Amino acid sequence: MNKVKGLYLLAILLLSSKFSDLYSQINPSTSFTIFEIGNNRIEVLNLKYKEFNIHISGDTAVFESLVFDSFNGKTLAFSEGLQNVQVKVKYGFSLLQYTTDDVRASPISYFKFSDWFDLDVNNNHIKVPNYYGNTDTLRVHQLMGFENMKGIENWIREHDFESIRNISFESQKSFFKKLIDDKEAYEECCQQYIIQAQKFLSSSIEDYKSFADLNLELYPEQIIIVISGTSEPGTLFRKTIIEKQNSFR
């Protein structure tokens, strides 16, 4: 059974890889104009804009990530007619709850904003820090003053671990109780899930000392970028970009 399952997962990975390559070919990265300010514009470079629901109203643009792409590590560019440009960013963090292997991780009911941080402006370009580290851009944890991503986790632990642990524990308890109630559906295919559920339900909340113990993963659910300055006639402007990231795992 495990061998068949392994071959099945391998086939999915191969197909996913081919799909990702094909998807990149039919949905290439491109620049996207977010705001027009007179004859000037603010745009984001190398964005697969078709992977977002985009809502632009007045001075605010909301990008809801649907698939894979995000503003992490992207570059914002603006026209030379925009002067004295200043940029600040803050991040809204949540946590994904993992349970059994066949269930997609989902966010728990927790959300915390970071402070505001200034971003450098160089030659009319703004580099957005990268959370996951798959580009050469400044990392989010470095922007926040931490040595590594664990620093962000420790910052959240210090302030909110008890409430997070309660939320996660109750969520998992509910999930595994339902699994046990329906354990006949798992007896032939997935005995390990029944064992996992029984083990969790026999545990105490005090047994869980970390996010890893709770099978939680920290991720940035929101990025808010505020760009301000003056346009050519000397008019002040202030624009806000909000990205709401998906939780696909």
Question: Care to describe what's here?
Answer:
- The protein is of the alpha+beta class and 249 residues long.
- The chain has one domain.
- Helices cover 29% and strands 33% of the residues.
- The chain has four helices and 13 strands.
- It has helices spanning 2-26, 140-143, 149-181, 191-201; strands at residues 30-37, 40-47, 52-57, 60-65, 75-78, 83-97, 106-107, 112-113, 117-119, 121-122, 125-127, 216-230, 236-244.
- Strands 3, 4, 6, 7, 8, 9, 12 and 13 form an eight-stranded mixed beta sheet that branches. It has a five-stranded antiparallel beta sheet with strand order 1-2-5-11-10, with no helix packed on it.
- β1 and β2 form a beta hairpin.
- α3 (149-181) packs across α4 (191-201).
- The longest helix is centred in the middle third of the chain and has 33 residues, at 149-181.
- The model is unreliable at 1-27 (pLDDT under 50).
Poorly predicted regions: 1-27
- Biggest sheet statistics: 8 strands, mixed
* Average pLDDT score: 88
Strand content: 25-35%
Task: State the order of secondary-structure elements, H for helix, E for strand.
Answer: HEEEEEEEEEEEHHHEE
Shape: elongated
Give the number of DSSP strands.
13
- Total tally of structural domains: 1
- Cα separation of the termini: 25 Å
Helical residues, percent: 25-40%
* Radius of gyration of CA atoms, rounded to a whole number: 22 Å
Our count of helices gives 4
